[in-house]
Amino acid sequence: MEAGVRFHANDNIADFIKPGEMEALLTEVQAKLHDVLHSLVIDTDSDHNTNETGRRVAKMFLHEVFRGRYVPMPSLTEFPNASRLNELMIIGPITIRSACSHHLCPIMGRVWVGVMPDEHSNLIGLSKYARIADWIMNRPQIQEEAVVQLADVLQDKMQTDGLAIVMEADHFCMHWRGVRDTGAKMTTSVMRGKFLTDASLRREFLSLLSGK
Q: Which among 38, 103, 118, 206 could bridge 161 via Cys, Cβ 3.0 to 4.6 Å?
């Protein structure tokens, strides 16, 4: 707040966390989750199953499912395109896990990344795509915004001639509550550069995904 920086659920705030604050935050979240259980009329004092639930959930939120909010972006080693590669590359499927910003229910799915490099592009190692996707998805998200965030980071680092991302995911806010439709999935895509302007390239990318 002092820096005037946005801190929405799917933002990263690692630059503003000082030493010792994560431990203090864990203690605060644990206490508030304990209060939530009491408000739900659960006797955590005598119930051995929920006695430590507040702390377990606090650790899960801060160190696992929302970890992407509190840690810096994974380091990326970028390589120049020395061979002047200019053919379509597809990376995926990358398994992603997140939580819906609206109900904090799980989002489980897969991501494919299409890259069309040119001689000025940077290249990154294959494992880095998964690390960046994990960093972005490990926050409360809505799928439509998550794919844009992933595209923004990859485009900034790689400066590709074309970038395409497709995400397919199950949303447990539909499976577990509400309409309880267990068969519905959501598919979203982001196209940048040549994938927007070259219809044949876009068709090639999407056709190669159709069997996956």
A: 118
Based on the structure, what is the number of domains in the chain?
2
- The counts of H helices and E strands in the chain are 7, 7
* pTM, full prediction: 0.92
For the record, the structure tokens of 119 come out as 């001689």
The residue assigned the tokens 């680092």 is: 157
Nearest alpha carbon to residue 81 among 51, 106, 116, 108: 116
Q: Which helix (H) or strand (E) holds 19?
A: none
pLDDT in tens, 62-91: 999 999 999 999 998 888 888 888 899 999
Q: Which two three-digit tokens encode residue 158?
A: 């790689």
Judgement on whether residues 105 and 167 belong to the same structural domain of the protein: yes
User: Which domain does 31 fall in, by range?
Assistant: 14-69
Query: In the structure encoding, which two tokens stand for residue 95, read together?
Result: 């398994």
Please say whether the beta carbons of 105 and 99 come within 8 A.
Answer: yes
- Kindly list the distances between the CA atom of residue 146 and the CA atoms of 23, 151, 159, 178, 191, in Å, as whole numbers in the listed order: 28, 9, 19, 23, 14
